[in-house]
Amino acid sequence: MTLMRTFLGAAASLALTAGAALADPAIIFDLGGKFDKSFNEAAFNGATKWAEETGGSFREIELQSEAQREQALRRFAENGNNPIVMAGFAFASALEAVAPDFPDTKFVIIDMVVDQPNVRSVVFNEHEGSYLVGVMAAKASKTGTVGFIGGMDIPLISKFACGYVQGVKATNPDATVIQNMTGTTPAAWNDPVKGGELTKAQISQGADVVYAAAGGTGLGVLQTAADEGILSIGVDSNQNYLHPGKVLTSMLKRVDVAVYNAFKDGEDLETGFSVLGLANDGVGVAMDEHNASLVDDEMKAAVEAAKAGIISGEIKVHDYMSDESCPVM
Amino acid sequence: MDFLTIIQILDSTVRLATPLLLACLAGLFSERSGVFDIGLEGKMLAAAFLSAAVAAVTGNAWLGLCAGIFASVLMALLHGLASITFRGDQLISGVAINFLAAGLTVVIGQSWFALGGRTPSLIGGGRFPDITLPFADALAEVPVIGQIYSELISGHSILVYVAMAAVPLTWWVLYRTRFGLRLRAVGENPGAVDTAGISVVRLRYTAVIICGVLCGIAGSYLSTGLAAGFVKDMTAGRGFIALAALIFAKWRPWQALGACLLFGLLEAIGNRYQNIDILGATLPVQFMQALPYMLTVVILPGFVGKAIPPRAGGEAYVKER
Q1: Does residue B286 or residue A264 have the better pLDDT?
Q2: Could you tell me the end-to-end alpha-carbon distance of chain B, in angstroms, rounded to an integer?
Q3: pTM to 2 decimals?
Q4: CATH 3.40.50.2300 occupies which residues in chain A?
Q5: In which band, very low, low, confident or very high, does the pLDDT at B295 lie, cut at 50, 70 and 90?
Q6: pLDDT > 70? residue A20
């Protein structure tokens, strides 16, 4: 009898919440996983912030394989979730296929442009943020050689690299930048061992600041840099706390802001092109108590000057993805 | 390219080759006994996870190593149960081990640490430190020999030396002991071994357990020696490269050492130089990354010396119908 009552109660509460659940926003995390201390985690934090502020709830799924992308998208859309946010450039082709089938559902894709009437494409000016950490790296480097370690070899990561090199060269024209990509498959995002080896190889070539834009691989980079006594630069989320006093700064990509805005705008969010850059705090550098001892006033002033210059348009940072080439590399 | 650069690349080669070598020898024991094992990757992954998890909780790398070996042996026994006792398809069982490890490590890791399937970063005693061999610092100033000793031979984690010692040990066990003779025989002709009154099942289980122990050391080395903690899928295909090395070495221990060092060297060079100019032609780094597989493909069909696997490999032994 009690069991029956439980079931009936559950059924009734389901029926009650069904109406509310209809318009719940949903978020799909990419293969790195929700707690990657980086990109996906930032997206999760944005969604959580929205839920805490509004008391609303959202649906979420972490992908386990490439094949699930379209399936997960359709499931949420058929379920009536709106808007649906995708954290990751890799959703583009799945979204191209799904978006026209659900014209009343709003989709938000982060890090990629999908040209459909019901899609908001959020892109970041990572080259601007990378330029700033490049300025800091050049200021902090004693050897005049700094390193860059990318994850999978894709144009987006070259965009990070290109902005970084421009920042370094603008500050110290004689500086050398050593660049490595971890690999050409998605496994390159989750190989801390190789990240560590690449860091050691760069150190032996004289690098004393290494910027990692490589997801889970970057953890190995930061670890090895801390072990070997050089400085590293984190990416996407604030990673300064991972090795206090050893991580120079982190290039913040405010994925949380993008997700938060999308959830807040709700069903009637504006579609189209949305750019988050230095001007609207979409990217930036992390300054907190963990790296305070590494950043002196001169470095701060240089970063502020570069930031103001980029916002006013005085400094033009070349975007690798605009023409698939980099003038300084 | 100066002498120090060569030493640094070789140093990196040793570090990168060690997990390959351990996994390769693991596969050697298993396959020489007639049990094909494409689950090396999964066993390493399970070991990498549990060793990092235990090391993170206890702060002791040695306990972590024991836990890693335990996890790997457990997986190996599962493979043995499916393919020896129940006579299932060894390849399918191996694939299942890989999937099982990839899924379980993330799920268990998430429920234990709530860090998205990763373990906390290891600090202090949770990692295997690099060992400085005696006189390494004193000899560092001596040109060539001193540099080789202090930079290349000294300064690795103890598991590197374990892996190097495992090569002659494997050779000795395989070719100089009664157990080794029986092990090789059971991979070629289990019927003959059975006729001699020796248990095929027990021999194969022993081989599979040895395989588990070696994979366990390999996995522990990845997460507690090279990296500082577990990240999902952190083996990144090393189990399959080890398998390629095993074929390349034609299932022999010393050749396995050579193959693993060669594959490690290719990766180390790829890490050091993004593009290599040889005689005017530029080799992209992707070429270096693909080379181990290409070499194996060339070896396998017999273009350059034929690689013949143990004859009874891949088949379950059926005593009587």
Answers
A1: A264
A2: 65
A3: 0.84
A4: 17-124+257-276, 126-253+296-323
A5: confident
A6: no
Instruction: Say if the Cβ atoms of B236 and A35 lie within 8 Å.
Output: no
pLDDT higher than threshold 50 for residue A14: no
The answer to whether residue A318 neighbours chain B at the CB level (below 8 Å) is no
Q: Which of A165, A191, A239 to mutate to test the interface with B (most CBs of B within 10 A)?
A: A191
Beta carbons of A280 and A265 less than 8 angstroms apart: no
Answer for the pair A281, A68: CB distance below 8 angstroms, yes or no: no
Write out chain B residues lying below 8 Å of A35, CB-based: 110, 114-118
Conformational region of residue A313, where left means phi above 0, alpha means psi within -120 to 50, and beta covers everything else: left
**Three-class SS state of A130:** helix
Judged against a pLDDT cut of 90, whether residue A7 lies above it is answered with no
How many pairs of residues across A and B have Cβ atoms under 8 Å apart? 84
Burial of A303 by CB count in 10 Å (0-12 exposed, 13-18 middle, 19+ buried)? buried
The listed CATH number (3.90.420.10, 3.40.50.10490, 3.40.109.10, 3.40.50.2300) that belongs to domain A17-124+257-276? 3.40.50.2300
Select A126-253+296-323's CATH number: 3.10.290.30, 3.50.50.60, 1.10.10.10, 3.40.50.2300. Answer: 3.40.50.2300
Smallest Cβ–Cβ distance between A190 and the set B12, B15, B233 belongs to B233
Query: Which among A183, A191, A201 is the nearest to B12, CB-wise?
Result: A201
Chain B: give the shortest CA distance to residue A223, in Å.
7
Q: Do B8 and A201 touch (CB under 8 A)?
A: yes
pLDDT band at A322 (very low <50, low <70, confident <90, very high): confident
ipTM of the complex: 0.86
